[in-house]
């Protein structure tokens, strides 16, 4: 399997190069030349296997230049009971006869980003080794809250790698911030950036595109890569859990082989839902992909109108990991919708850059709407979804997943669609204990309580144990205090890596 850029610049690259490089040299994203399929026989066989065997199978179809032994080793190093707190890795919980929750937050940082970022470092280090890479890999990360911590945990003390994480100073939850600024490891740096996630993401993209800096880095024996979902090595592991969820339901007799299901995904950068789209293309009988946005509803508007317009106010919400106006991974979907027409993709992306918006053609819009449905929930609706789900099912949703739940209910109300649905649950409620408790118990119950006291209260309310990685933060020292403006990010990288020194 070979890869090419969505903008036509790079072509015929094996997956190891693509994973090492992160983003294509023309600024586009890497996509596979074709999307491999799984037959019903494959599915029947995989239904009898565990998560890891399923992962090895799916990875082997996309990452064909890795040996089976390498993939197996990577997968077993990533998905095990030292890192995850359930043997199923990504369990499916039945909420009622209609709706199933795919819990993606049983990893070390309590958000779905672990599903990919526990694996990516192994894939990257293996790629470096097998291709005779001499340079150290420097991972630059822009985070809306969860990617940063997951990348830090995944790459900490991995030899031959360094990580620099940029997070928006005012844009992450207190627990998310605490998770990052207490991060241990000799090869990690965490920097607060003034502005929102888009500022951090644009700053990182500008550093990637800086040829002069790249040269300087080379002289020092460094090369950049990305652990954001623009890296193909982040997306493939995410395809696995949609396939696995469907297989779990099949095996449990909840659905039959030819029964279509809907998939609901709370969306920000469009990576997670794109993985579900690839799963559909591979043969999982998915009917609709329901794209749930928070008040930053640029994607919902796009799906409904075909116009992507980022020129709008940015809102800080209680689902901060979805506070995004430039959804990078949409570019991969546009490539597919346009039938692989990289010229058209390039035109749209250029228009987004210069005008802040683009409009896709009617054919592409039609194809988009055949598969995707977009909706959104504001903060009040998000809180209401947490409260009503708790009252009805005694199940506690985090605010991101609650956005998905609200939009799903709205979807069913508007369309009458009664397919069974899988809701991707993207974070543990303990990561956002304050807002979750405000929804369930009211403002008074939260007022004046510290972050760790809230964890205790939520544990009592939900009947769940506090994840050890969050409870343990109480004892940790703050190790990262640097902050900067977007235009200073490059200088910070130069300083942290000591690139200017001779
Ligand atoms: C990152 C994140 C999202 C958004 O996922 P995308 O792949 O960026 O669409 C949703 N919820 C949580 C908790 C996240 O961390």
Automatic annotation (TrEMBL):
- What Pfam families does this protein's entry cite? PALP, Thr_synth_N
Q: What EC number(s) are associated with this protein in UniProt?
A: 4.2.3.1
Q: Name one GO cellular component term.
A: cytoplasm
Q: In which pathway does it act?
A: Amino-acid biosynthesis; L-threonine biosynthesis; L-threonine from L-aspartate: step 5/5
**Gene3D superfamilies recorded:** 3.40.50.1100, Threonine synthase, N-terminal domain
Recite the UniProt keywords alphabetically: Amino-acid biosynthesis, Pyridoxal phosphate, Threonine biosynthesis
Q: Which cofactor does it need?
A: pyridoxal 5'-phosphate
Start and end residues of each Threonine synthase N-terminal domain: 3-79
Q: Does the keyword Amino-acid biosynthesis apply?
A: yes
Q: Which residues carry this modification: N6-(pyridoxal phosphate)lysine?
A: 113
Domain Tryptophan synthase beta chain-like PALP, chain residue ranges per copy: 94-403
Which reaction does this enzyme catalyse, per its entry? O-phospho-L-homoserine + H2O = L-threonine + phosphate
Q: Which domain of life is it from?
A: Bacteria
UniProt keyword Amino-acid biosynthesis present: yes
Q: Which GO terms describe its molecular function?
A: pyridoxal phosphate binding; threonine synthase activity
Gene Ontology BP terms: threonine biosynthetic process
Its annotated function is as follows: Catalyzes the gamma-elimination of phosphate from L-phosphohomoserine and the beta-addition of water to produce L-threonine.
NCBIfam families xrefs: thrC
Family designation: Belongs to the threonine synthase family.
Write the protein's name. Threonine synthase
* Phylogenetic classification of the source organism: Bacteria, Bacillati, Bacillota, Clostridia, Caldicoprobacterales
């Amino acid at each position: 399997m070979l890869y090419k850029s969505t903008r036509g610049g790079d072509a015929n690259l094996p997956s190891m190069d693509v994973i090492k490089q992160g983003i294509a040299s023309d600024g586009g994203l890497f996509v596979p030349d074709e999307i491999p399929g799984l037959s019903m026989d494959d599915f029947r066989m995989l239904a009898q296997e565990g998560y890891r065997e399923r992962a090895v199978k799916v990875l082997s179809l996309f990452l064909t230049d890795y040996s089976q032994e390498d993939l197996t080793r990577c997968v077993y190093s990533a998905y095990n009971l030292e890192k995850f707190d359930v043997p199923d890795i990504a369990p499916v919980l039945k909420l009622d006869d209609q709706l199933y929750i795919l819990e993606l937050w049983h990893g070390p940082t309590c958000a779905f980003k672990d599903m990919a970022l526990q694996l990516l470092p192994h894939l990257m280090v293996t790629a470096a080794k097998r291709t005779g890479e001499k340079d150290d890999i420097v991972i630059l990360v822009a985070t809306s809250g969860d990617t940063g911590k997951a990348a830090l945990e995944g790459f900490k003390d991995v030899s031959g790698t360094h990580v620099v994480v940029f997070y928006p100073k005012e844009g992450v939850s207190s627990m998310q911030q605490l998770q990052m600024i207490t991060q241990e490891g000799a090869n990690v740096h965490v920097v607060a950036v003034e502005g929102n996630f888009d500022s951090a993401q644009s700053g990182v993209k500008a550093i990637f595109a800086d040829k002069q800096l790249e040269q300087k880095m080379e002289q020092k024996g460094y090369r950049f890569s990305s652990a954001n979902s623009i890296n193909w090595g982040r997306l493939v592991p995410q395809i696995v859990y949609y396939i696995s969820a469907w297989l779990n339901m099949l095996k449990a007799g909840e659905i039959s082989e030819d029964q279509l299901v809907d998939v609901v995904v709370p969306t920000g950068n469009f990576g997670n839902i794109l993985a579900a789209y690839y799963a559909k293309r591979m043969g999982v009988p998915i009917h609709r992909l329901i794209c749930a946005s928070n008040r930053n509803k640029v994607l919902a508007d796009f799906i409904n109108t075909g116009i992507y317009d980022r020129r709008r106010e940015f809102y800080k919400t209680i689902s901060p990991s979805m506070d995004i106006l430039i959804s990078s991974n949409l570019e991969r979907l546009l490539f597919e919708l346009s039938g692989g027409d990289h010229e058209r993709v390039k035109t749209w992306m250029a228009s987004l850059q210069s005008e802040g918006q683009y409009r896709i053609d009617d054919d592409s819009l039609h194809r988009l709407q055949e598969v995707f449905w977009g909706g959104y929930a504001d903060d009040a609706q998000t809180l209401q979804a947490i409260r009503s789900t708790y009252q009805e099912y005694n199940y506690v949703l985090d605010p991101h997943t609650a956005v998905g739940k609200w939009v799903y209910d709205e979807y069913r109300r508007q369309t009458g669609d009664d397919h069974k649905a899988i809701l991707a649950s993207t974070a543990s409620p303990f990561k956002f204990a304050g807002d979750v408790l405000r929804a369930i118990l009211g403002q008074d119950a939260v007022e004046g309580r510290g972050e760790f006291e809230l964890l205790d209260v939520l544990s009592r309310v939900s009947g769940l144990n506090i994840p050890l990685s969050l409870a343990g933060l109480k004892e940790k020292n703050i190790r990262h205090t640097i902050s900067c403006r977007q235009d200073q990010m490059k200088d910070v990288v130069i300083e942290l890596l000591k690139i200017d020194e001779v």
